Amino acid sequence: MTKTENQRISYLPVPTEDTAHEGVKKLWAKAQANMGFVPNVFQAQSLNGEQFLAWWNYFNLLVNKEGFLTNAERELLAVVVSGLNRCNYCAISHGAALRYFSEDEHKADGVAVNWRHANLTGREQALCAYAEKLTLSPAEVVEADLHPLRAAGLSDEQILEAVQVIGMFNMTNRVSSALGFVPNAEYHAQGRK
């Protein structure tokens, strides 16, 4: 579970099986069983076990459970925000998830670099444009910015969920980047033929 100094995944110390919070160890075991590996972010953020589990519960509810947006739309937002923030960990890990949910191995790569050059639907373009503005210019966001989302067919519930996902990834990107989280090698191949 732990990494050697050559495989460092965070600027801060990473708990071991012996030192990790009990709830964190259960999450690690579940991830290992479901994914075949433990995401480095699960290990790196678990230094403060209770805080990590609180973050994970909200993140899991927002990103991994049935919601108002599709899984592919939530991952699209994650990749746009992470690309704009230049968050290596999240762009790579959520790029893998976007490849999986969209069944398009090229979309995630294009979106991470410049969503305007990716093959997106009008609805996806509206989501990306909103994510970009909220990420890069949050003080300039006004009610009129919701009009393109509504015109693209999004309900108020879907808009709220989009805002929450965008907000979550802006926060998570900052934590990951500030502490130098390194993405798992497994992510690079996921969702590719």
Automatic annotation (TrEMBL):
Give the top-rank taxon of the lineage listed in the UniProt record for this protein.
Bacteria
Q: Does the keyword Oxidoreductase apply?
A: yes
Task: Show the InterPro entries listed in the entry.
Answer: AhpD-like, AhpD_core, CMD-like, Uncharacterised_peroxidase-rel
For this UniProt entry, the molecular function terms from Gene Ontology, in alphabetical order, are: peroxiredoxin activity
Residue ranges of the Carboxymuconolactone decarboxylase-like domain? Answer: 51-132
Q: Which Pfam families match?
A: CMD
Has keyword Oxidoreductase?
Answer: yes
Arranged from A to Z, the UniProt key words for this protein are: Oxidoreductase, Peroxidase
Any idea what this protein is called? Alkylhydroperoxidase
